[in-house]
Amino acid sequence: MFGPAPLQRLSLPEEFALLSYGENGRVPSPAQTAAGCAAAELGELALRRRLLIRPRKTRKLGLEIYQNRGEIELSANTTGTGLTWADDLLSALHTRTTTLTPRPLTVTRWLRERGRAALALHTTALTERGVLRHSPGTLLTRTRHHPDPALRTALLNGVRAVRAEQVPLDEHMLFLCDLLDGADLAKDFGLTLTRPQRLERARGIGAAGALPETLRDTSTVLGFSLPARQGRTITIGD
User: Fold this and answer.
1) Could you tell me where the DSSP H helices lie in the chain?
2) How far, in Å, are 89, 99, 110, 131 from residue 74 at the CA level?
3) Whole-angstrom Cα distance, residue 103 to residue 177?
4) Residue 171 and residue 47 in contact, taking contact as beta carbons nearer than 8 Å
5) Angle at 87 between CA 35 and CA 107, to 5 degrees
6) Is the dihedral of CA 74, 79, 83, 87 positive or negative?
7) Is 124 exposed, middle or buried (0-12, 13-18, 19+ CB in 10 A)?
8) Phi-psi region of 49 (alpha: psi -120 to 50; beta: other; left: phi over 0)
9) What is the C-alpha separation between 236 and 136, in angstroms, rounded?
10) At residue 54, what are phi and psi to the nearest 5 degrees?
């Protein structure tokens, strides 16, 4: 049986991982899910004001055009976040960006480097907390991780409520929704936004208008940086 209460607080990468695992215990695309988990880690650090993504934007016919690449910019705030994985990640990012020959660290490069490790880390953490139920593989079947249905439904209902404008869009839900859109999970759940709609949200049109532009830019770039789905459906236990 699953242990956690339905409204247990999860970090952004944990939420993304939880919604990525289907009822069959698998993720739709391992490479995309891994990148999404790594992007969600950056999103959590942005929400905690430890970093921002500086977008590469151009202007055409009066409209801002986002390029997929963005650069990670760390905050001067070096105090602990209260999350061990987040503090370890910040330390790694500081090391990565303060070498003898520093160069901008792009989101796409970091997602390629970090992706699978991020998915493994948060899958293990969710399993230990009872949010995912681990089913060992056999000679004929692969390892699976089945999500807590009550917690997954509660989180998904929160996303639906934001999309239906029944509750205000806050910073956290902005990031989660952009990541779900970028990973095509929103489409799986029947919650799709078109690319123009996502760009309108990035420009602060509508419900996102009250949120800081730097966070809107960061969330937009993270969502657009996820790779397309590809390959067979497997899990982290393969």
Assistant:
1) 12-20, 30-47, 84-97, 107-128, 149-163, 171-182, 185-188, 195-202, 213-224
2) 11, 14, 14, 31
3) 30
4) yes
5) 30
6) positive
7) middle
8) left
9) 11
10) -85, 115
DSSP string, 212-224: -HHHHHHHHHHHH
- Contact present, 216 and 19 (Cβ < 8 Å): no
Task: Work out the number of other CB atoms within 10 angstroms of the CB of residue 34.
Answer: 25
User: What count of residues does the chain have?
Assistant: 238
Q: Assign 163 to helix, strand or coil.
A: helix
Q: What are phi and psi of 68, to 5 degrees?
A: -65, -25
* Predicted confidence band of residue 50 (pLDDT cuts 50, 70, 90): very high
- Angstrom distance (rounded) from CA 201 to CA 193: 10
DSSP 176-189: HHHHHHHTTHHHHT
Give per-residue pLDDT as tens, 184-228.
Answer: 998 888 887 766 677 677 777 777 778 899 999 999 999 999 998
Cβ within 8 Å of residue 138, ≥6 positions away: none
